[in-house]
Amino acid sequence: MKSKFKEILSSATNVVQNYAFVLLIALLAAISFTILVDNNSLTEESKNIFTRFGLCSLLGISLLFALNTLSERIGKKFLLNISGIVFLALYFQFFLPHHNDDFGTVEVVILVLSFILSHLLVSFLAFFEKNNENQFWQYNKNLFINVVLTGIFTTVLVGGIMLAITAVDNLFDLDLDNKIYPRTFVMLAIFGSCFIFLLFNEDGLKALEKDGNYPDILKFFVQFVLIPLLIIYAIILYLYGAKILFKWDLPRGWVSYLILAYSLVGILALLLVFPLKEIAAKSWVKGFSKIFYFALLPLLVLLFVAIFTRILEYGFTENRYYVLLLAIWLTVVVLYFSFWKKANIKFIPVSLFAFGLFSLIFPYFNTFSVAKNSQKIELQEILVKNNLLENGKINLNKRINNSDANEISEKFDFLKERNELNYLKKYFNESETKKIAFFYQKRINFKIKEEFKNVKYSKDIKNGEKYTQLNIRANSFNYSIKGYDQIIKIYNYDNENFSYEGNTFSLKGFNGGLTLYFNGNTIDLSPEVQKIINTYKNQQGEVYTDQISFVKQVGNYELKFLLEGISKNQYRGERDTYYISNDVIILIKKK
What we know:
Elements: H1 2-18, H2 20-36, H3 44-74, H4 77-94, H5 105-124, H6 133-171, H7 180-200, H8 205-208, H9 216-247, H10 255-272, H11 284-314, H12 318-339, H13 347-361, H14 367-385, E1 389-390, E2 393-394, E3 400-401, H15 402-417, H16 421-425, H17 430-441, E4 455-456, E5 468-474, E6 486-490, E7 496-500, E8 503-510, E9 513-518, E10 521-524, H18 526-534, E11 541-545, E12 548-554, E13 557-570, E14 577-590
Parallel strand pairs: 3-4, 5-11
Antiparallel strand pairs: 1-2, 5-13, 6-14, 7-8, 8-9, 9-10, 12-13, 13-14
């Protein structure tokens, strides 16, 4: 027992010595997210700092591990680790937003791609100038096994510790703070899993790239489970391709994802059985690899047709950009392994890393530039098609179909989320620009469609039922405080609190309802709104009235609600849903 303890202690000491920077960055990540867990005392600025620091530290785990592995090959360990930390510091300052509310699509794409690229670095960085294909495979196989074992060990460790805390808390009546559970989970899931993984990699690169027996369970899984499934999916995709040719109909958009998934899983299967290709008795591996790549060629044609159908109709978005990029990468991989006599499996992660890096940093052709420029062109085309532009400005009084108004609104939202508000402002006069900028900058749920004054709503006949929409709008939003004590203007009626004479009010709205919370009591305002809608129940499209308002008695107070607009929808015979458009004015007085 004593010798076993010494052995474990020695292994832990070696891990700390060999992977000091990796462990440190994992500990910092765990501490950052532990502080963030259920902590309402932090300011928004502090939350943002810990969020950015935690994300950068998480990214640093794989990055510093890759650099540490490279240092075992070329030396210069300290220099490589310092360069990694400098990169993380720059990433913290310049690549992540300084306000948590600014984490949007762009930031998510950058984060996800950064994590993918850092893990790809782990797979090949130590072999960048080393061409031993078998050692490369053994290294990645052992890494994969260690990741699986780490997942199992961490799950058991976290579950055991959580159960122990619960047992001690209940048996000894300690009344522990409930925050101990999520914080313990975060610490063990991040730092604990990292330490366990490094224990499995104790001897480093030499142990990871050492030859080992091919696992029988892996061979059985690939040969009798994965490959048969791939054959079934290939048959399905080929039959679908035949259907397209027979009916001469364009492919559906989701088929792109199915082909990509099939291709990536197929490549993974070939990588898993790579060592068996040299064994004569296992010649099926060579046969399958040749058939697989050649069989992919027609499916790649179908993939390109499907993605270009979507792009030509709706333009580029980040998702469509990456589907197209993966399609191009797959084509390169297929051609490489089909026709290059000295093909090396290292080409797969290296080329994928290169494509991913290209998509993030290459000027003009990166995913964000392509998506924004494409959507700007699409927006301009739809504005011209509907004759909405007068001297470069959108005429909001011109008649427009509901579908086109929705498409314009979606493109505005897309560009606004990507910090193109100044570009959008050019389409409006000064007063309209100020209003639109105000709503967007306040992060209010604002749709440019609501500013169009003459939207044509067509009947969408489907399954014998129709879609209708009614927009009730106030001719003016003027109001008088006469007879009331105080006025409150709600800019975001979906999440707004206000107080009067020490009483707390909260107004929350959503599709099909409007609720007022008063000193812990819930008051449903939906019937009052529904009464207004019922006045116009036989109408659709735009309806204008002098004022949209109702009065509600709440405790010792009288509240008068003035609305700028109400939009009602009905689809396929379902119950009506509505939402309150833009601002809400509340006049309040004591009875």
